[in-house]
Amino acid sequence: MAKYISINIVLELLCLLAAMAYVLKDKSLIWKSSIVFMLLTIVMEELGRHFNLTNQWKNNQLVYNLLTLPEAVFISSMFYCMLKDYIRSRPVVITGLALIYGLYLYEFIQNGPFLYMNMTITVMSVMFSVYSFLYLYLFIKNEAYVELKKHAAFWWVTGALMYYFGGLATNLLFTVMPFADVDINARLYSYVYVALNLFLYGFWSYSFKCRYQQTR
Q1: What are the protein's UniProt keywords (predicted)?
Q2: How many domains does the chain divide into?
Q3: Which of these, 20, 61, 19, lies nearest to 44 by C-alpha position?
Q4: Which terminus has fewer CB within 10 Å in the chain: N or C?
Q5: What range defines the domain where residue 69 resides?
Q6: Euclidean distance between CA atoms 118 and 65, whole angstroms
Q7: From CA 101, how far away is CA 93, in angstroms rounded?
Q8: For residues 166 and 199, what is the distance between their CA atoms, to the nearest angstrom?
Q9: Number of C-beta neighbours around residue 147 at 10 A
Q10: Mean pLDDT value across the chain
Q11: What pLDDT, on a 0 to 100 scale, did the predictor assign at position 174?
Q12: What's the confidence (pLDDT) of residue 215?
């Protein structure tokens, strides 16, 4: 049983609990969908670990490839919610989502479901990083007074930026300057992603609390 528990899953569970505590009764369906997304993430993470431990498939990449689809929808929907206060975000987000799904379909046809969809994941990470920087630029440019420590959107976007931009930087670093020892390379890579997940789910959990305080 202990084999099915990891630091990442613990972080995801804590974030799920925070979402259930703070946004379960939120009037926004998009914010409320955080609960569904976190639950789905945990289920798929456990399935991935199960197939990796039992060797039922040649690899567990299919599980994570499938998770990419709802991830793209959820993150895009949240950015639509964050950006719509500053710009007409619907066309931007729909175009980006169409691009992600187009690339996903292309890689699925070309490589099948068991290979890591590198192009799709990379483009998606670049896109979400751009959305994050755009939001922060518009947020800073806006002259309206905001109490930052209680601003849910700011903390949610900050978490997303840390994860997606940090992931891009990490992948680039390990591609350009890999360690000679493969085991050390894999171990350091996993440690970095644990840290990125800590930032992501930590900031998201705090944003749920801020959202609750803003809307109650």
Answers
A1: Membrane, Transmembrane, Transmembrane helix
A2: 1
A3: 61
A4: N
A5: 2-215
A6: 10
A7: 12
A8: 10
A9: 8
A10: 91
A11: 78
A12: 85
